[in-house]
Specification:
homodimer, mainly alpha, 8 helices, 2 strands, DNA-binding
DNA sequence: TTAATTAAAGAGTTCAATATCTTTAATTAT
DNA sequence: ATAATTAAAGATATTGAACTCTTTAATTAA
């Protein structure tokens, strides 16, 4: 469904959010460990999230990554997906046709339309705060 | 959503079905042309579909690919998707966790569950016959 | 039985995503 | 100032999907 980079990005940002809710910065090694992702690759993903202002980074001793408390509730899943994978997953044609539309539909257009709309709505309405509190509650997990 | 191979496979089998409904065999070059896919790659995909008995192939003059008329109504989208992409798309975790379940859910498990179920149901209930007749009706298209 | 036509099979290539490694820059503590 | 710590940046490597090419096998028609 999503690229690996996108999966790691979502897992990372959720973990950083849980830490930020406890006013703790976290380093990329700790993040990679907690979300069970390759260290160096995670670092690259964090750079991208940081450059796009979804997270803040601080170098040096006691540095690491964090998210502003006000910001956590304002980041929605679709923003992260858009950044890493674009909108192809919930806008593109199910059969990969470049020109597929209501006016010129592929054979599965009507069937996929429903799925795409559900997915799009879900990504637009799910924010990082609720996912982070899920982790904090202990009912949801970022790794085995 | 699906791999390119899977997309081409679905497009191919729909086109072969429309031809078979007119009792015409079609060669891989014609198929590739009609679905706007690379020729050699399409040939490989057809081999796989053929080996797995979704289509029949005949070599030599007037050879090509076809589907038995009775069979067309009995092939469902999920069978093709399973063959090329496995069941990961509608069974796997949205965040790529190996162990994600109702008992040990990832943060987006509940949200994705709905999408996955919709997708799964759609793939289980959509068959090649209805898609092929859509093409024949002129209301749906396999390429621009 | 030869030539033409068609798919099958297997090896090889290309490319983008995934992942790693090394060097540089910023920050803090001593 | 120096050392330690942390992320940024850029180059490199690996892998698997996407795609191609060449040879072989089967079938049919002349």
């Amino acid at each position: 469904m999503f690229s690996k980079a996108c999966e790691y990005a979502i897992r990372s940002i959720i973990f950083i959010a849980t830490s930020s809710l406890e006013e703790k910065r976290v380093g990329f090694k700790e993040i990679a460990e907690e979300i069970d992702a390759p260290e160096a690759f995670t670092a690259k993903i964090l750079q991208k999230l940081s450059k796009n202002n979804f997270i803040q980074s601080t170098r040096g001793v006691n540095g690491g990554f964090e998210i502003g408390l006000e910001q956590i509730k304002n980041i929605y899943l679709h923003e992260i997906v858009d950044l890493f994978d674009g909108d192809r997953i919930y806008k593109g044609c199910g059969l990969g046709l470049a020109k597929c539309s209501n006016e010129h539909p592929c054979p599965v257009h009507d069937q996929f339309k429903i799925i795409r709309e559900k997915l799009s709505q879900m990504l637009q309405t799910t924010n990082i705060y609720e996912l982070a509190t899920g982790i904090k509650s202990g009912n949801y997990f970022l790794r085995t």
